[in-house]
């Protein structure tokens, strides 16, 4: 209580500066010290100061998601928060979180992580969408789209879900790209693209009717969807069969296509991942894990886009000898490339020393997902509908 008395006599801006240096876990405890502290910590001014405070890579955490099989219950998913110890070891900061609502099928044995944006992430099983703050453990179920497929049609998202913050209207948005197919005995011979945006502030989905161009077809890779420079990015193929990065500006709601660099031919084809390295959009081209690798031809190539949106600025930065991996997952601290092995083990590759390291962290093969994030106090708004409550994982 003595500390509370001292803080009361400090100017509010000084008190905010002092408290902003603390991690979220400590601030959540401080809220119970006094009503004064609780009011200050919950204020939008303080939350923004804490969000925009000067940070280093020591303030970064890893969200680690993986699936595992239980004999009686089938597949389940666990989400862990990891921090870095000595010698780049990864340690659990928060024990495994089991989010409700999300399901698994034989086809989708993982939860998709989208984000982060200001400490918030989105998780989805391609049907259910959950907004989540891992630091506060508060989450909200996003209402389903009101769109209903006409009889004789079905809908596919192909992984086209994005999330970001509109800096103009100060609102968080979700964007969902789907294709509506006409069923026929010969397959899906007719399709129509549909783009919907969910505005967090008004708790409502709406059609994006001004999209009059034929968008490239979006495909899902484990480490490609990326929020960068105010836009969300997906891997896509256009009608000329070019591999492109499809971007969606969260504020203007305009789509653009960024042509990917011409990649070297390999024995079994390439797959792709998109990361941010040295504050630049970066493309990883890696051998198809389903094909046998030829060490004389195959390599993992890392391309940096030195000027955003300019095709001519693509520069090949690294050429890495082929590794027996399933896919890249994330880049941490601009030198540690995190990957998943074909057996479902978390592995790192040091871009500076070429050292490969295995961690005692694993899941069902192909189910690993990793996001690098910085925690925040950003609140999740209450729903206005009949389900209008936020939930907390205890």
Automatic annotation (TrEMBL):
Q: Where is the F-box domain?
A: 4-49
UniProt cross-references to Gene3D superfamilies, sorted A to Z:
1.20.1280.50
One Pfam family cited in the UniProt record for this chain: FBA_1
The name this protein goes by in its record: S-locus F-box-like protein b
Q: Which organism is it from?
A: Petunia integrifolia subsp. inflata
């Amino acid at each position: 209580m003595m500390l509370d008395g001292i803080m009361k006599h400090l100017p509010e801006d000084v008190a905010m500066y002092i408290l902003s240096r603390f991690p979220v876990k400590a601030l959540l405890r401080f809220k119970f010290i006094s009503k004064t502290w609780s009011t200050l910590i919950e204020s939008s001014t303080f939350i923004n100061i804490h969000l925009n405070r000067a940070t280093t890579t020591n303030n970064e955490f890893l969200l680690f998601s993986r699936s595992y099989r239980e004999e009686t219950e089938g597949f389940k998913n666990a989400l862990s928060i990891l921090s870095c110890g000595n010698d780049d070891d990864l340690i659990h900061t928060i024990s495994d979180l089991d989010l409700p609502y999300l399901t698994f099928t034989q086809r989708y044995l993982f939860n998709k992580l989208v984000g982060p944006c200001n400490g918030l992430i989105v998780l989805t099983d391609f049907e259910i969408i959950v907004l989540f703050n891992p630091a506060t453990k508060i989450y909200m179920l996003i209402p389903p789209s009101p769109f209903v497929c006409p009889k004789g049609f079905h809908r596919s998202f192909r992984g086209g879900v994005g999330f970001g913050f509109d800096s103009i209207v100060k609102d968080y948005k979700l964007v969902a790209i789907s294709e509506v197919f006409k069923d026929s005995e010969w397959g899906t011979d007719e399709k129509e693209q549909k783009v919907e945006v969910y505005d967090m502030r008004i708790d409502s989905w709406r059609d994006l009717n001004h999209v009059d161009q034929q968008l490239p077809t979006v495909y899902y890779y484990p480490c490609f969807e990326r929020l960068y420079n105010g836009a969300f990015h997906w891997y896509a193929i256009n009608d000329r069969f070019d591999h492109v990065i499809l971007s969606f500006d969260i504020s203007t709601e305009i789509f653009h296509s960024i042509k990917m660099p011409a990649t070297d031919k390999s024995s079994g084809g390439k797959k792709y991942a998109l990361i941010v390295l040295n504050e630049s959009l970066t493309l990883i081209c890696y051998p198809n894990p389903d094909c046998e690798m030829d060490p004389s031809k195959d390599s993992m190539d890392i391309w940096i886009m030195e000027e955003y949106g300019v095709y001519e600025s693509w520069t090949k930065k690294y050429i890495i000898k082929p590794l027996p991996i399933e896919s890249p997952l994330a880049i941490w601290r601009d030198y540690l490339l995190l990957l998943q092995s074909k057996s479902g083990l978390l592995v790192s590759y040091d871009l500076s020393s070429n050292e490969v390291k295995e961690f005692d962290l694993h899941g069902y093969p192909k189910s690993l997902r990793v996001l690098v994030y910085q925690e925040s106090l950003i609140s999740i708004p209450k729903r206005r509908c009949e389900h209008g409550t936020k939930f907390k994982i205890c």
